[in-house]
Amino acid sequence: MDDSRRRAKLYVQNDAAWDDHGTGIVTASYAETNRGKEMVLVLHSEEDGSVILESTVQPDITYHERQDCLLLWSEEDKYTLALSFQTKEGRQDIVEKINDAQQNSVQYLIGLQDDEDGDVSLQSMQDLSSIELPPCELSKLEEISDTLTNIIGLPCLQDGRRPSADRLALMLEESNYVAQLMELFHVCEDLENVDGLYHLYDIVKSLFLLNQASIVQLLLGEEILFDIVGCLEYDRRQSERTNHRTFLTDHAEMKEVISIKDPAIKSKIQMIYRAQYIQDILMPMPLVFEENMLSSLHAVIIFAKSDVITALQNDEAFLTELFQSLQDDSTSMERATELMLFLKEYDQFTDPMTAEDRLAVYRTLIPYGFFNVLSIFLALDDGGEAQKAAVSILRHVSEFSPALVREACLDAASPSNEDEDQLLLNVIIDRMVEDCDGDISGCLSIVLKVVLGLPPSMQQNREDQLELSLPLKEPNPAMVAAYNEFLAMFYRQSMHHLMAPLLASTSGKRMSRDDSRAAGLLRLIMDVLCVCVTAHTYHIRNHIISRDLLRRVLVLTQSVHKHLALSAVRFVRQVLGQKDDALNNYIIRNDHLRPIVELLEKNRNYNLTNSACVELFEFVCAEVMKEMKEMALYIAENYKSTLEKITYVSTFHRLLLRTEQEKDRQALMQDTAGNSTNDISSMTNQSRYGRDGSMDDAEEMWFNDDEDTLFDDDTSNGERHTSPATHHATSPISSPVDNAVDGRTADGPTSPPTNSSNSNSSNSSSPPLLKSLRKNDDDEDDVADVFKNPIPRTSRKRSFALVDYDEEEDEDDDDDDGEKSDVNNSTSNSSSPSLESPAKRRKVDTTA
């Protein structure tokens, strides 16, 4: 058999959701267990071959076949499992093996447990295997109730199974015991036997608490369902009986807004409603240790809802009639409200479905105009219940799959749609702005935050990168492209709709309107903008800077409504949290932290606003040594006197202290850099120029030579290839710093031209620097190190002279040097500063 037929994905129910546990190949084969040879379902992972699921087939477990490829069952009274097969044939193969194993099972649930571990002993198991219910008679009702209560109270086996409950379920299926109990119920009602009715209440309640899917399906049968409800009316804890049967028959009738032709679907819809009524109304609230005792009833309801959705999803005529009626202008508001309430219930039925099946349902509805219907009813000025239903559906869909809503918004913003106000995103924003009901505006703000937020994969990626300094992982390119396209559309066509109330209220230095409704709306807008700051990058940054949005937001700090002022502080904190240089410079340049400092001064008490302001400065204090140096310096320079007075927290003392430390560190670095520059310039001038401030002919010849010919191998032959232009070029390492130190500016005279006859001098092949190095150190590696690392020259300048002078000549020519220096000073440019000659500086240094 081809393994691909038995390829399946395992889902485990978690409350109302289904968790995906992996994909693999399903096998069904006999294996030795502690109860003998039994059929075992095993799901091996297709990735590494590990075992994902290992489930023993038991004769009391009911395996449900749903849709085309689903196989569902409940196990151990706790878990509801589902295998979604790739093909229908693969599921059928497994189901046939399960049926054969259940039919051929002869010995059932006899296990040996160790008394020392506190489990059920062999003698106890033998007693349980012989359990039988008393005869179904009126006089035995109390005994039947006690027997069922005792079975429920028996301990479970080590694997979580209850053999007594399993055996009892088989007995009830094979006999007509429940029907006989219902006959006794009618007898007790006719005779007004109150004690018998109380016992029947306990019996029916115990049957539900046995938590066996086969028993629950038996109790919810259409023939006896109303009798079951009647038994549950007689609760001895209630002083007055409530007639639930009358309510279900007279007031809870099924109303078909759209005709359903399949009678089986109608019956199943009614059964779902009545089962939920029993679960929510008639059954007592379970205790903490009884939370899972009604999981079988819950599973039956879920499976029935899945069957209804699947059937209606495949009924093309039904869906066409439904959405055409909703989009027809001639449909009355009353009928439209009924249709929208039906669509809301239809949407709620998809809750327990798997994510893949639920997404398939929405994909099926979209071509019929699903989002167009929601947009129509959202745009109504007085939509009433129909509008509230549309809001509820939109929130439900957006929380499940924001990508679906983004896709619908992009489709509505196509070039064919020229009316910007009819775009789905703008309809949502306008309804939130214009709504007088806080519930609708609050729900729509949640929709906006979910849709505008980052997709989960991108959000997790960003959090990992920011918090753990991990490298960014590449998300799905198609998802990123769609998200960026949606953001571009939002900022181009919808952002001004969202900002309109904020800009209108903050046009001046104070709010033009500060009533409770305006404050509530502006707070919702600020919440959405905070999401934009955290989720979007350059879009919101450009919008804030280009429109000076922060100035408008800070006006809200003057509001009398503290929650609105707090939202403004939170927005500024989100902006600072991005650690964006452009945004930080924008805040510093416009002094946008002044309103926050003023708000902090007004709120000296320990309240939420004060805490938010302090936390903002605490964040800046923590980031002083990292990305917020300029921001900390700006705060210290402008608000030091104000912040020094706040001593009830240590935040501002530490902030100012760290800022001073940062200033000292920067000043020390500048001084170090300046001293290093002066040392290098002084060394360069002393080595390059002679006593009269001019270079000797050989050194100037070397600086004027081509760099390429300096270390040419052909120089050993005595041939020099120099360009005439290089004879009059300035030194390649001369700089404005050198010229300034030497008394010449960049525009002043350069070195005197070199005599062309010196170009053939024997000394021109080796520069004075290289000669002096070789004279003091014969190791050529040291020469190479000097050229590779020029900075260490300053540390070696006292060990050798860059230009050799005889000490006697220095002493004899002091007077000549003074005369030459006077001549040079008199002939220099008047704009150049008068400096001592290098010879005089050197003489002073030597004397010192």
Shape: elongated
Please list the strands of the largest sheet in the order they lie side by side.
4-3-2-1-7-6-5
Mind summarizing the main beta sheet?
7 strands, antiparallel
Unreliable stretches: 106-129, 463-470, 686-695, 706-848
**Please, how many helices?**
38
- Rg value: 44 Å
Mean pLDDT equals 76
Strand percent estimate: 5-15%
Question: What distinguishing features does this structure have?
Answer:
7-stranded antiparallel sheet; 848 residues; 7% strand
Describe this structure in words.
The protein is an alpha+beta fold. The protein is built from 38 helices and 7 strands. It has a 7-stranded antiparallel β-sheet with strand order 4-3-2-1-7-6-5. Strand 5 and strand 6 (70-75) form a beta hairpin. Helix 5 (177-191) runs antiparallel to helix 6 (194-209), helix 13 (333-348) packs parallel to helix 16 and helix 23 (516-535) packs parallel to helix 26 (562-577).
